[in-house]
What we know:
The chain contains 19 helices and 14 strands. It is of the alpha/beta class. The chain folds into two domains: about 25-340, ABC transporter type 1, transmembrane domain (ABC transporter transmembrane region fold, Up-down Bundle); about 360-590, Rossmann fold (3-Layer(aba) Sandwich). A six-stranded mixed β-sheet has the order 6-9-10-3-11-12, sandwiched between helices. Helix 6 (about 180-230) packs parallel to helix 9.
Amino acid sequence: MGQEQEKTSLGFCREVKAIVARGRQVWHLVGWPQKLALGAAVLVMSLASAANTSIPVLLGKMIDMIPPDSSPRPGLHRLVVLYLGLMGLGYIVRESLNVLRRYLVESTCAQIDKNLCVLIVSHLMKIDLSTLSQEQVGALHGRILRSIEGYVRFLRISFLDFFPAIFTGSFALMAALSRQPRIALIMAGVIPVSVMLTVWQLVTQKGIRLGLLRSRELMDGTVVEQLTGIDYIRAAHSHRQEIHRVAMAAEQRRFREVRHHFEMSLFGSGKALNEALFHLLVIAFAIYLFFQRSIGYGDIMMFSILFLNVMSPLNEIHRFVDEAHESSLRMGDLLEMLAEPTDRSFQPSEVREPRIEVGAPLFLAEGLQVTYRTADGRTRRALDGVSMSIRHGETIGVAGRSGCGKSTWLRVIMRLIHPSSGSAMLGGVPLECVSRESIGRLIGYVGQNPFIFAGTIAENIAYGNEGATPEQIERAARMACIHDEILEMPGGYQARVLERGQNLSGGQRQRLALARVFLKNPPILILDEGTSALDNISERNVQKAINAARADRTVILVAHRLSTLMDSNRIFVFDEGQIAETGTYDELVRRGGVFAELVRSAESGCLTPTGDGPAHEAIGAPTFPKAYPDLLETIPHADAIPLVDAIPLAEKMIA
Length: 655
């Protein structure tokens, strides 16, 4: 039994230390104006507590003045009116100060909420992308909101409920001590028992609380994941499977919540019975002292009310410690996110500006190597010894099978990921010395799934180009072949776009992103499947706009339609993280290597089970996921499988 108590005591001490340490860390994030405002709130609440304590003291004195036999005394009515007036004034002062305190606390907490939200989002925007990729978007979003909400709620409870209750209880205990020390001693006796019950509750509920937090994050991640893929879920008629996933996660959360609330109700009942027992003891002892003529009968009521005031912080300490414990867990998440190191592209050791001149070397790479860790913990090479040279003004095509390293190489250029070895230079400057500002100014990027946000058409085109005029926006839209379609929309350029551009077609989203890049007019243009969703006519028109701007800019094209690369000055063919071939379109076709095989596959409309991905992105066909390496073993060993047979086979194996 002694060992169990010792373990509980040690566990409580550790938890209190963790709560205090996390609270101090987050407190440092609060600005001085907010700290001063909360300090003023503490002063106000102390004055309000003094006014509150004066009320039962005045009440007891007034009752003691009234004779038991109701016999009239000269001036008694005036004294009663005076005491009632003073009590009324006490109520007015108390409530006025409470209004001021609430305003100070609420306005300060709202400002802290805003500041923390901006702080953590700005930090997450700068951390390593590999860290973000390991998180479910919905779970991360829920963790951000709950961590900030938990800390702000903790501040509100502290300054609106707990600290005022502490002041009220302290003043009440001092008033009782000055009037009758023995009764004050009985009042104080309730404190250690209540604290012991709270300690027991805190230690036993920690694991359940953590489980509840994680189950809520799991639910958030599952729902956001489903909403993101709602089109496929509906097309595949797999909603029952997804509903089952939600039901399982919800049942897990329900079971933990029921257990938690049941145990909390037991603790709550124990605390209430303890408080009732000591209240009865205070009243009984006060009556005993009255019969001993040590106190007046008005003091019995005064001590009863003062005991309720002493119980005020004990009633709040249960909720305060409860909230402090949960908030400390959430503050731990907040501090963990803020402790994530900033991506080194935001903190170059030496900032140097790249020199961009037509004909001069633009991008040089020597022995470039990028590694990543797979889900099973193994290390794989996404790029393996890549060496190349690109001059400014060239149009560079990029081709290769799925997963061969094309997009990884583009992400290296944009400093979204960092090579593990080798060297890379942009505009004659080591890539490590190029700032994010320079990258954003020099490179325009359009991917297969462009970033479209909820707002107007004009706002989406002008994104990243502050100060763009309506004429410039319209000119960019014309270059991207979307101007006429915009005019047909209700509101034209002021038409509303839903989140992720859900009310636009895939081609419209890509052309909006292209218009954004044309408006930006950067010297380097990267299209990573940037025209994959366009029809042939639109792609031809967009290609003309790109060709017209080729003279003074570098264009890098990754295209699933290999015919798009015909006009490229050179084509880099990637294979298994290396550059397998380099040359013009015609040279590579005549060479009969990997590129020629991709062209033949595109022309014949079939898939070949070779390389690191059985489906060639050259024709935009669905690729077999890397998560199913045994899939190829089920495919008959033939030179090619017709597309109409391959797609059902792939869907069957993936399902």
